[in-house]
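ok so heres the complex, two chains, lmk if somethin looks off
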Amino acid sequence: MSNNRVVRLASRPVGMVVRDNFEVAEEDMPEPGEGEFRVKVAYISLDPAMRGWVAEGRSYVPPVQIGATMRAFAAGYVEASNHADYKEGEAVIGLFGVQHYAISDGNNVVKANTSLAPLEAWVGGLGMPGVTAYFGLLEVGEAREGDTVVVSAASGAVGSIVGQIAKIKGCRAVGIAGGPEKCAYIVDELGFDAAIDYKNEDLREAIKRTCPDGIDVNFENVGGEIMDAVLGRMNTFGRVAICGMISMYNSTEPPKALANLRSILVNRLKVRGFIVFDFVEKYGEALQTLGKWHAEGKLKLRQDVRDGGIEAFPDVLNLLYTGGNFGKLVLKV
Amino acid sequence: MSNNRVVRLASRPVGMVVRDNFEVAEEDMPEPGEGEFRVKVAYISLDPAMRGWVAEGRSYVPPVQIGATMRAFAAGYVEASNHADYKEGEAVIGLFGVQHYAISDGNNVVKANTSLAPLEAWVGGLGMPGVTAYFGLLEVGEAREGDTVVVSAASGAVGSIVGQIAKIKGCRAVGIAGGPEKCAYIVDELGFDAAIDYKNEDLREAIKRTCPDGIDVNFENVGGEIMDAVLGRMNTFGRVAICGMISMYNSTEPPKALANLRSILVNRLKVRGFIVFDFVEKYGEALQTLGKWHAEGKLKLRQDVRDGGIEAFPDVLNLLYTGGNFGKLVLKV
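and the predicted structre for the whole thing:
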């Protein structure tokens, strides 16, 4: 019987992730106990949050410990089961880690309906980005028919789904992205109503032009000046769902003050930060809906599936931070 | 039959309010139509929001027009009624304006139970400050038993009630105020658990010392550096109810960036701006509860009732901005 192969965190990265931060190790094949099952991992999701998971210090989830298997969402097939609800051959997704085989008790595991989308899509667009967009827009942002929704980083894995869900729900979807290609992509291919090229347009004027009735929901991925400009055009009782503030993560300059912070008070905005783990009990519901929309052709996904196995994990992960991918990054095991 | 006397807005103030911004005028005694009643105004509430009401430009309520009666909450007695629900002699509070007599159709009028508190209290601590504190803490801030609540401008009309309601609800109440006297007042007289003197203490250290288990609810009246320091100690899923940002209103320096803005994301905070008008349909419920607490001795109010009639309105209003009052400012008509 073959062994398990795992990627462990060897040291905490300083700045960019390097190969030596991880090590590949052999372990005995794990055997499921009572009420458990074994998953043979097929696809691993690569997500920007991973950089935070390997950093020390207080954050929203405990950091991966040195010597522990690297945390990751993954999709695979049940291989051996002592769990009544999971049968051999079933496709599942969950936090299985960067390894060939994982043991699970079914907690926070979701079954992947491969008749709606192929397995890799369930850790691609339908995985973390899909559920992040779904709950962020509909629960945190409380988007309703007729609302104007503005999303930043709109051509990204999450932003591209936010705008498409907004359209499915009868909203006006406006995306902020950098450069004419990304802007054309979200309007022409994904069906956004309008795009703002923050690299080549005056933000405030472009927001005014594309949001003539103001903004009801801001799905914020970027923070900083982009968020500030959007705040200045929010409608009364608008909602701001803060999913990320990537403009602040790598900046070496001190942040500028938000000129429109007072909009929160004057317009009685609800500003709420969230992470996708907060909704883990409802992933199943969201994924079922997202899968259905995808199967109906209403939700387009773009995945960038890489070969190389788990040994390629550090290099493929870095593509996220160097902009080397176009579409949701997935590693094939 | 006597005439009505009214204070009208004569011109928009630039900087501080001056006497010439208002004029006193005589009008015919107003007569109630079908479904209306006339109120003889006895006490007028003076509130910081008034400076905003006389300013031009988009805000949360339309500005008072030049030549119009100055807007104000007031308390008085029904004098003549063609309205089935309001009888002569009943005590009422509502947006009756700075004048001797007002006509109302009962919309957003609340009856004042003078067996629980004297009439002036219903535009004093139990008026705008009371309902602002009530809804801001309990609905926007979602304060629950066991929470740590931090309120800024804690010795003020709203802040002093926020801390007392927090105590009634079984929370830990920490107030931020300027100077040892105000700090002693909120702890010794109002029963706050702790006070922070932002003028004489290191804010961050004092917050750490007084909030050993972090902060669940921030009732924010000040904004700026005080809010920033509080954000840095918020617990996961904490709430920030933004009632005011007075630190920004008169500042001539550009605002500093909030160093802890990312706390909204990492701690998944709900930050929500509100104004008391948003809850106008539920004033009655809040006032009944506040009056009961006051009658039971659980809620201490400090009112500063000034004589001089409506002619004194501009001078008395200015006390709010020069710090010339101690306690909720009320003008006796």
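quick notes: The longest helix of chain B spans residues 128-140. thats all i got rn
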